[in-house]
Request: fold
Amino acid sequence: MNADERRREILTAATNIFAQSNYRAARVAAIAEAAGVSEALLYKHFPSKKALFCEILQRVGLRIVEIWEKTVADETDALEALRRAGEVYVDNLRNHHAEAALQFQALAETADPDIAAVLRMNHLRYITFFEKLVKRGQHQGVIRADVDPHVAANILNGTGLTFTLVQRLDLDGPDASPAPMIAAELDWLSQPAQPSETKEEASS
Reply:
């Protein structure tokens, strides 16, 4: 096994150990044992437990955006691209439970500036992805022009966090579907702006 393969083994083991407990409780010794390496060898690849945790978070964030980009690459309609991005995000949650757990754990560790910086960069990437699609949709005329793209991107990003919470806490049952939530967001984005009430209408 070469160094890159060994590093991936350690990252996979660490992801599972962190998810089973949490960042603070997870022991480096347990991670090393799960990866089949000594603690000394683990520290040759990662200088600290925090460095290992941060790299996992960074990789998760980059992979999510990469999946989104591939998913919408051939989709010309911006609204459909947003729908597909939402669906593939949920598929990712179901197939990568440990990674989803780590992202939520990281929110509790934002007092640490290093962890906060990685998490912030991840979410800025997500917001940038959504903002580009919203702007494209406005250019196509399928997304309402009165919506601020950055505000819409933050709301879309928040919807992903909300559905993650719904799924992890089993708020809507084990077979919860993201479709109604995604549809509500896209309906809001595509609805034409309502004309302002005139003074005459308001006084009548």
